[in-house]
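Dear Dr. H.,

I hope your travels went smoothly. While you were away I took the liberty of generating a structure for the chain from your last submission, since the lab meeting agenda had it listed for discussion. I wanted you to have the full record in hand beforehand rather than looking at slides cold. The sequence, exactly as received, is reproduced here:
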Amino acid sequence: MSTERYNPQAVEPRWQAAWREARIFETENDDPRPRYYVLEMFPYPSGRIHIGHVRNYTMGDVVARYMRARGFNVLHPMGWDAFGLPAENAAMTNKVQARDWTYKNIATMRGQLQTMGLSLDWSREFATCDVDYYAQQQRLFLDLLDADLAYRRSSRVNWDPVDQTVLANEQVIDGRGWRSGAEVEQRELTQWFFRITRYSEDLLTALETLDRWPAKVRLMQANWIGRSEGMRVRFPLTKPTAAGTREIEVYTTRQDTLFGASFMALSPDHPLAAELAEGDAALAGFIAECRHAGTSEAAIESAEKRGHDTGLAVRHPFDDRTLPVYVANFVLMEYGAGAIFGCPAHDQRDFDFARRYDLPVTPVVLPDGVDAADFAITDKPYDGEGRMINSAFLDGMTITGAKDAVAERLETADPDSAPQGKRETNYRLRDWGISRQRYWGCPIPVVHCEACGVVPVPAADLPVELPDDVELDRPGNPLDHHPTWKHVACPKCDRPAIRETDTMDTFVDSSWYFARFTAPRSATPTEPQAANDWLPVDQYIGGIEHAILHLLYSRFFTRAMRLTGHLDLDEPFAGLFTQGMVVHETYRRADGAWVSPAEVQVTGEGTNRKAVETATGEQVEIGPIEKMSKSRRNTVDPTDIIAGYGADTARLFMLSDSPPDRDVIWTEEGVAGAHRFVQRVWRLVREWSDGREAAGPPVEAGDHPLRRTAHRTLAAVGDGFATLRFNVAVAKIYELVNAISAAQAEADGDPATAAVIDEAMLILVEIMAPITPHLAEECWQALGQEGLVATRDWPAADESLLADATLVLPVQVNGKKRGELTIDADASQVDVETAVTALDFVQRALDGRRPKKIVVVPKRIVNVVV
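The corresponding predicted structure, in token form, is as follows:
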């Protein structure tokens, strides 16, 4: 009996070297086999992999190894999403250049990922900060500029006056910059945009074709695009303004509630608000306050609803009422017309505003089954279905009917006036602003010339490279205050000009990298034939946090690249899988300080579990299970796990405990259990291989229950890999190991049984290879097999062994279940009837009589009618 333990620290590097030397994971574009492209969202090079990387990349690797074994030419590349503010900040803190910091981190993380035994094609590796990569991105920008998909316009932005940079809405916290803490200002800046709104309808309707995407992601994208059917309605002012404004236009999706209107509200950025503020200091002050608040929809939604009465009023389109006009902090200029009419009875924001300013709240939709005399709006608005009330010619109509009736009336002009309204489809989606006042990003390849205006950099002069000698410790954009970089001759007139100093949003970098992997050394952004052959990505894997922006921008970019001749498809990812997070319980000292799992020893079970800080012996509080985060210090370093237990143990644990789309709870006990299983499999294989050497030559495998179990497991595991139900596959592997162990114990030297065990052992090793590839190679060698299991074809399951040999049928007597019948799966109806009538409980029910009828539903159920 072998007592040698499996030593991952010695085994894993050896097999990784063997794979590397054989170059078995390098992919050739001209390989004639059918193609399969699996890709995990590439990482930001922070300097260390985290446990989420282990789960994400293990899932993709299992799919890649399985599909390779199935006979596919698999593309499974890796790269780095390397530009961005974090690197710039880290470089500034550490007083190094961002480039040096980034490439050092990449080297470290590459080495860490390689210890995981991933079947990656490292020959295609690139980072988005590579000059070769962003040079091609600049070519794409110029192509989009030519196609009118890139343009420049003035836009209101969040400006941090200390850092002297634009902030995204998410970086404004309580009206202050997330890093500097300074009060954020709203400024008008000229920005570069991509015209994603040109594809609003296409991006929305095409979601229906993405049947291998999670329904949740498709819904999130649909809501973000936000298609709405509504109307533009013109409200005449009771008198013109001093500047001659005579009406206010609104966009509404609820024209049916016009009779419930009690006010009109303008965005603080509305042109009329600016016009009125010139003569109203109080209004100007209110607008300034609004511009210091958060500008995201979430911030506006949660803020207290406030407004300023302008003193203006508009006439209602259907009666003699007038409505006061406010400037309000909850109206967005970016949606619709930047103005709304408020119907407090049926909208929460309007309701909150009306209660604050004591405005009328008139219900105009009556819930079905409620008497109008008993219906009133008190503490909250009603936003459900019903029929119209208090609405003149609309009374009694459904909401849909009322919308149509209002639209028809407003679109019908009087002989001497224009129509007051027009039906319109609107979208929440806005054009993608890509300008960033950062250094560490892809330079936008244009120059600004006083004589010629904005001039694209000629393709022959690309790339526009970033300088290496920038000052990062000075506020503002380092490119803007670089002494020489921005000064250049105009490509048109050769006069002095200035380079564009904004860089591209890093989402641009990740919106086409999947296409670049198909020909990463090409002198053009893609080799269209290679890109069209490989794309769309067959299986894309990543976090749900990227459900909207990254995925939506990638879908837009694919369409843009098709328009400009780089691709011939619309959708980049045929299949999308969003994995769950890795979570861990938290530990806290009595003083509130967080303690990491590595510093804690946990004992006991259930309610008796206790945690003690190892260094002090003091008991610490065991807190809730939460997403791993540095702030809670509940992170686990995967390099420590791999060093201690081996990569295969980490891979196995990540796939075994939870469905892959759900969170997995990291526990030391779980990892130790996975390690014990690895050791058990190794022991099982070694003991059998040692014993077989003394047992003589093998014979042909005969009929044995283990054969049926092995082939069924083979089929089930393959199905689990193909459908990304990895935990189901692992459970089946555990069952097979138990069955092999039982058969070994009963073999007692029988050659036929030994042959069955031989076959089952090989199947076990081959189906474990995608999950625990190093262990599989070592076991394959121990079983005397030649070559690498990583290059083996997936074994074929014997179809004759997959069908059930017996059936268990529920048996009813007079419609009530009384027991079960176990019978051969191919038994005839007569056989079933004979066997049923022989059952003890049926005999008792018959009490010597013949059954009136026996109803047999084949392979489902039997009912004996007495």
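Two observations you may find useful: DSSP finds 25 helices and 35 strands in the chain. Residues 668-693 form the longest helix (26 residues).

With kind regards,
E. W.
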